[in-house]
Automatic annotation (TrEMBL), chains A, B:
Pfam family for this entry, one: ROK
Name of this protein: ROK family protein
Recorded superkingdom: Bacteria
Organism: Stigmatella ashevillensis
Similarity remark: Belongs to the ROK (NagC/XylR) family.
Length: 338, 338
């Protein structure tokens, strides 16, 4: 039997969303459909080599149900937290990854292991690109994605393309919403993330607890077997009307409203998409509340941007990573068959 | 004698910068060189028709030294303050223009009068585009222009093109730098313009004077025969070390630093160009002070954007307006002669 001509082979892409605690993997077909998904823990020891091993293992796991080898993938994309040099496939810095210090040629190291071209992007930027292509952002040519989680990240789509600036565009979490205000984990003051990031809110909640403020946030955390205030803990606390949780989320919403409206005043995009762990967990109700919080700060309030919850859920990062490999696969391109 | 073939005719563009108090006109040749310039007062009575008359008169005045008629111009561009529909040539709203209320088909009205195609753009957006093409922004593919005057306006160039969003992009003056802060002339609170706009600073100075704070700002205003604190008055007060003037400008610089850095964190542009009446008048020394004020808020402080004073001075608006008519003139295009 002869080998099938190249254009008849299945074009399938692997996507890896590399986080501080977990790796999410997907396989995407040429229509952008998720054929398979898998998740595993990010190794907390062993630094970059251990992480590359784990990425390769995640790919094996996600290709197995499709009776594929990793090496049969047309291309693989990795979304990583931190500053990325997309051209060289180097992860420049990644504060959230255990044992990571200084630049590491992540794409090259993984490509060598799996014998498939590997592309690297920033996790939030690629997640926003996935929403633009296949999720809530599909109807729009321009949008701002705001990823509300431990931090507040963002991504920008203009004229249907990712806008990356000199590589670091989208850092809406470090918009100054209150000059001289709260201390941010980045070391600066008054950043949006210092009010709205889940990490910052947890620090604030712990201080309030020490001061004797009444809250059951940490009881629920312990009940759920967690050691930090997860999005699920916040959601439960809001549903129960915990006064501290309500106060901190209200404050976060006010600041998100100001920060996102400022970005809209600058960019005048058609739509804003809200994603991230906390954003997707809190859901549509809080997207509506954000709409209200933005309104007083919009320069053209009679024509606000459309506002949506991310449509791809927690897979957006992995799907967006897979789309990084699109150039080799011509995925989603019109069929050439007669 | 036969008419010259079209490609041999001189291609010259007219540019009109329409402001609340004056109209600046230029004629530009195909290399972007200013051949002629003229300035006249904006009529304070008669509304849109009087303004169209004055625009036509300004064109006559600026073409006369070149022994041209307005109708011999290849195309004319108008930069106007306010919201513009570029496609239809309609000025939607213009709070700063005397007697202007509601949309008016400005381009069509002027074109009818002078028998030349007329293009309309927002004044700050076109001024920034002029800086990008012919001024301080020439070396860059992406930049943010910040026009510091009565208000604080802005314009964005990405990948060498103006980014206009849905028409209103660039409103950096309405970035919230202090949520719940000072009242802005737009009616909202905490906008950058509420701290750094020359109009807002004058209101603050008048209140301080009423409270008995010591300042000679208004003495110098009267000496110079003005009825408002012009950029020249502010410059004189700073040079003399007037304590109130120094305090208000320092505050403006701090807020500009935060607001511009936030925009850079979002867009990661290569350069920022500072223009506008106050920006150009205060000059390079204050651009350096702005550099210092931005630094604490930059997410990637080790790689700040380049920062420049606008290079075309007060002609940037008129030159940018002329460039709106470029498509009909193919100005600056490579010569087709052998």
């Amino acid at each position: 039997m002869t080998q099938k001509p190249k254009e008849d082979r299945k074009r399938v892409l692997g996507g890896l969303d590399l986080g501080g605690t977990k790796i999410q993997a997907v396989v995407l077909d040429e229509h952008g459909t998720v054929l398979s998904q898998a998740r595993r823990a990010t190794p907390q020891e062993g630094g970059p080599p251990a992480i590359v091993e784990a990425l390769a293992a995640a790919l094996e796991e996600v290709t197995k149900p499709l009776q594929l080898e990793s090496s049969e993938l047309t291309g693989v994309g990795v979304g990583a937290p931190g500053a990325v040099n997309a051209a060289t496939g180097t992860l420049l810095q990644a504060g959230n990854l255990p044992g990571w210090s200084g630049p590491y040629p992540l794409a090259e190291a993984l490509a060598k292991k799996i014998s498939v071209p590997v592309y690297l992007g920033n996790d939030v930027q690629v997640a926003v690109a996935a929403e633009a292509r296949l999720g809530a952002g599909r109807p729009y040519r321009s949008l701002l994605g705001v990823w509300w989680g431990t931090g507040v990240g963002g991504g920008i789509i203009l004229d249907g393309q990712r806008w990356m600036g000199r590589g670091a565009a989208g850092e809406i979490g470090h918009t100054v919403v209150r000059r001289g205000g709260a201390r941010c984990s980045c070391g600066r003051r008054g950043c949006l993330e210092a009010y709205a990031g889940r990490g910052a809110m947890e620090r604030k909640a712990r201080k309030a607890l020490e001061r004797g403020e009444k809250t059951r946030l940490f009881d629920w955390m312990t009940e759920q077997g967690k050691d930090r205030l997860t999005s699920g803990v916040w959601l439960k606390a809001l549903k129960q009307g915990d006064p501290l949780a309500v106060k901190l989320i209200e404050r976060a919403l006010r600041m998100l409203g100001a920060g996102i409206a400022s970005a809209v005043n600058l960019l005048d995009v058609e739509a804003v998409v809200i994603g991230g762990g906390l954003g997707t967990r809190l859901g549509q109700l809080y997207v509506e509340r954000l709409r209200v919080a933005m309104k007083p700060h919009l320069f053209v309030p009679q024509r606000p941007p459309d506002l949506h919850l991310a449509g791809l859920g927690e897979l957006s990062g992995a799907i967006g990573a897979a789309l990084l490999a699109e150039p080799v696969a011509e995925i989603l391109a019109p069929s050439t068959e007669p």
